[in-house]
């Protein structure tokens, strides 16, 4: 029984990693939607489970602990009517292929969305700020290499990124650490800085480097709006959209 | 199959009415949580369906159109593991009793949460700004009357509130209309202004009247955090918590 099923496709959000990042992502979907009233907005189901084990630590330890709860969440979202899936957590994309293998619903990839945004900017090499796990898993390197050269963080820069991420997860600001990390990347020749952990755009906020940063969370949100609206025109079953 | 079920109770959010208000509510839950890392945060499942028919119009027309999709959403949230429910939409509480009658999961009532916040402020009569439907349905009047006297809006004030609400739903600011409405309430002797439509706290933002306003969305978010954390200590089955 389904009353008033929307013409727009429903996004399923595997979230809570962290919870503030999920809220930021949902807000960016709302902001990216060409709406004049409630009913124009993208329908969503969200599974926000902050208790999923730390993704970066799991990647570095060669541990697939986060995969089982992510699969649970994927099942919840499918049963709740999600037509396609998005994960506002960069590190969790380490398990993207295995999650995609378990569902017919397309799972948008945050690095594909970000690579499109990087291509559109064309500002020279891009400095990658993320968790250590995202870098170790190579989530961005191959996908970005066609769009731009990549500068990886040195150890002091990574430590600053870690501090900014931890601050946001604990409800603090993180901006000074993020600015210091971004500044080091720009000094090393980055034309722009990719904020490839979903806590980092929150830390960036009104940073003085905001116009030099590229936000994969926003890129993924824009891709979700396009998918939801595009599906309205060409709705032929989720399994046909890859 | 459930991996790593959290010790905290899971809030189910009947949302999308409107979508920006749901994001605001989720952000207030995150902000109200005493967390030092992801895993301390409140687990949530969110059903955001902006296509639910306009609640205020339905109340004024004596039409129960929103009830069927709300019941659909309630079922989705129960199957997704929600231990208790919250609706970040004041007008939708017109159907609170009928929704509560269909689930063992407690549905927190936004006006109960707001009444507690009003009692704590004790600033004299409270000016009620909301949709016309919320006032016609009497969602606040009985619950607030023990906490404070109530000043209802006159027609020009209601028209300003309507304009502020519509602006936020269309992705605009709404602050000037909200400030004008709140100013009229304060001139008429209100000690504080209750922003009893979930779009209104968004419009209030950094308004010059912000310190005179009481935000039921925030009060409901705080009640959800207390419920999620309190349930951790006394978890005995959702049906025993009213």
Question: Outline of this structure?
Answer:
2 copies of one chain form a homodimer. Chain A has 242 residues and is α/β, with parallel strands linked by helices.
Q: How would you portray this structure in words?
A:
Chain A has 11 helices and 7 strands. By secondary structure, the first copy, chain A, is α/β, with parallel strands linked by helices. A 4-stranded parallel β-sheet of chain A has the order 5-4-6-7. A 3-stranded parallel β-sheet of chain A has the order 2-1-3, sandwiched between helices. Chain A is globular, with a radius of gyration of 17 Å. Chain A starts with 10 loop residues before the first strand and ends in an 8-residue tail after the last helix. The C terminus of chain A is likely disordered. Chains A and B meet through helix 1, strand 2 and helix 3 of A and helix 1, strand 2 and helix 3 of B.
Number of helices of chain A: 11
Mean pLDDT of chain A: 91
Query: Major sheet of chain A, described briefly?
Result: 4 strands, parallel
Proportion of residues in β-strands of chain A:
5-15%
Give me the oligomer status.
homodimer
Please compute the radius of gyration of chain A using only Cα atoms.
Answer: 17 Å
Placed side by side, the strands forming the largest sheet of chain A appear as: 5-4-6-7
Series of secondary-structure elements of chain A, N-terminal to C-terminal: EHEHHEHHEHHEHHEHEH
């Amino acid at each position: 029984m389904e009353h008033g099923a929307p013409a727009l496709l429903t996004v399923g959000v595997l979230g809570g990693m962290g919870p503030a990042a999920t809220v930021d992502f949902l807000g960016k979907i709302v902001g990216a939607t060409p709406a004049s009233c409630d009913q124009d907005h993208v329908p969503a189901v969200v599974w926000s489970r902050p208790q999923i084990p730390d993704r970066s630590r799991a990647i570095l330890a060669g541990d697939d602990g986060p995969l089982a709860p992510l699969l649970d969440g994927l099942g919840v979202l499918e049963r709740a009517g999600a037509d396609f899936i998005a994960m506002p957590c960069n590190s969790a994309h380490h398990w993207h292929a295995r999650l995609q293998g378990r569902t017919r619903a397309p799972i948008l990839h945050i690095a594909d969305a970000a690579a499109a945004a990087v291509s559109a900017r064309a500002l020279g090499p891009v400095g990658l700020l993320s968790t250590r796990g995202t870098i170790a898993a190579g989530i961005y390197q191959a996908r970005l290499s066609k769009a731009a050269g990549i500068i990886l963080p040195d150890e002091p820069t990574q430590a600053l990124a870690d501090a900014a991420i931890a601050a946001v997860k604990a409800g603090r600001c993180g901006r000074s650490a993020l600015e210091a990390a971004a500044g080091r990347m720009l000094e090393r020749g980055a034309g722009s800085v990719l904020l490839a952990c979903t806590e980092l755009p929150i830390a960036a906020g009104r940073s003085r480097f905001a116009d030099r940063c590229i936000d994969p969370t926003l890129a993924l949100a824009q891709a979700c709006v396009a998918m939801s609206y595009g599906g309205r025109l060409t709705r032929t079953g989720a399994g046909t959209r890859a």
